[in-house]
Known about the structure:
flat; 4-stranded mixed beta sheet; alpha+beta; Serine Threonine Protein Phosphatase 5, Tetratricopeptide repeat; 13 strands; 13% strand
Amino acid sequence: MANSQCCAIFRRFFLLSLTVIMVDSHLPDWRPFFKSLSFSASYLLTRNQSSADGRDTHVPLTEFQLSQLLKLYKVPPNATVETTYMASNVSTDRKTCCTEANKYVFEDIWQKFPRVQETWRSVWENVTFLLAHLRNFKCHVTFTGDIDTSFAFDHDHLALFPFFTMINLSELVVDLDVEPHLDSREVLQTLTMKVMYPGSPDTQIASLVGFIISRHRCGDDFHLVLDEENEELHWLSVVLFDKFGKVKPHIICEGFRSGTRCWGTELSAGKIIYVQDVTVYQDRRQGIGSFVLQKLFESENVQNEDIVISWPVSSDVSKDIVVAFFRKNGFRRIGRTHFLGYSPNPNHPSRRLLPENDIESLEDRFLGRNPPLSPELQACGRDAIDEECRKKYPLHCAIIDQNTPEIAKVIQSFYDKDPASIHVPERRGFLPVFAAARAPNIHALNKLIEIGVAEDLKNFDNIEGVTPLEGVLSFMKLSRELSELRTGMWAGNSEMDMKVINILKTAMNLPTDSYVQFKFGCTCAQCSDGWLSPRMRFALRVQAAFYIKALSMDLGRFKGRARLDASDAMTGCGTMNYLPPGLQRPMLKSSYTGFTTVFKVIYKILRNDIQVPTLRDIKHDAALERDISFFKSEGGRVEHVLDALTAIAKKKSRLGDGTFYKTFGNDEDFLRLPEESEESGGAKMDKKDKNEEEISLK
């Protein structure tokens, strides 16, 4: 800060000398020369008040300012505190007064440090360091103040003098700015807060940076939108939520990974306000950071149904300090993830959970008992780490490397030498049976189950907090999410993963799923071909019926053999947009009739509860319709119609404007149909899009 700026802000100063006298003679061995040390340290405090005649007069420190200073130094509650105020006139020779003040403050300690200090700042750093280590000792504290040092910033050689300003939070100026995101205006808004001294807009003392996420506008692109922004938001999206922005079941349902269970389905409602950074640049430890968060909570941007989330990490201070800061301000762990959440609702269960009763994240919990790799080993690279792993955990490595029937003999040899070897976890807590399931290695898994690992199948004491079965299911979900995120497609669960799941369920005496149901994640047991749910069939069928009627009405607009402009917005109720540009030229009535007939073919298939509208079946039935040949002769394809039907149905679903549910939400026929879970609902829509994937491949 420039001297002129300091003079403008701090017009009047009081030199406060703090004397700490040790009453406990025991000090750490690394500072034996500090035994029974009496010394003085100093702070510059803003403390001025204008009198009636316009002149500045100094007044005593208030009780609030004194309490803040004691809090800053972490003075024990049982310490004796005495305050003495000594007025001192500033001589006209300010340089002389400065020298005297310096001598008074630092004379005792200057000689006691092990080496000569060159600047006041280096002395101050040592004093501050010592004070930080005195907080656990009983001490006698004496404050002596009211020495006028307004001359301090008149001299360049005093620029290094440390100063501390008592902040009146109610006087701070807050500038909160919310702007639409440049690339995702409908979903994301950038949130920026600046905190400044009154009358000094260029002097920023704290800031907040974050995002407002309107997930209801994402459809099924929640992961995609946040992934494109930054890595932190990517992890927020995939760790806590599915691609629709709905909370993942294991976060809130009964189980180890749900943690304190103070969060529920409300995580799926409202906006997400993500706090990416809170920084206090100066005058710390006076509640400014908490003040910033409270101003955010009080703003119109945070409503009762919203959720404020943050990932407490910092490059400047320890993780424990950052976590404690957020917990002090009402944030609580979401499940056992890294993320902390705050509910604006004062009656929310998280608001009744005391900070000390909150829990650690899975990673912190596990690494607290199992130290990570040494920095020396990490510096040697991946090959060295793998080699160390092979030495410490040879059975795990063999299971991963040898995915052949021969692995059964290897496992047997380990067991013969030491029966306990098949139950030994590796450094992250994963047991051999977990490694076999995750690999996936069917041969190893069957052998381990044959020998006897029944208890290990229930074990979740690892860095992910999951059993082998939960671990494979989680991996399958992650694989699907990544596939959809990177390619926009998902080909279903792999054959090997499905076999592993059924082996594990059989060993645990749990019911297994049929191949058809499991391939695409059916949970209602009524999905045709494992992917087309009864409600999705209903939605597609009524959509097809609507277009059959609407398109048939357009046929009256054709006059003789005249062509109709297919690019006209009034034509086809939006279905024409899904035809290639070459087909959107003026169409003959015969071609348009063929286009309409394809909708009729799909409708008939959808009315048959055991038939699925695959391309093969649609093409087979369409070949029997004469009108469709005219549509095909113009370059039309069945895929174009199927693309239009599925895409428009999706837009009218809850992933779009929700008009389908506004129309049929209370329909008795619709309500009688089984409603798939939130988790499997995506599977139905995705599999519906599988036909569109086939279209793109063709």
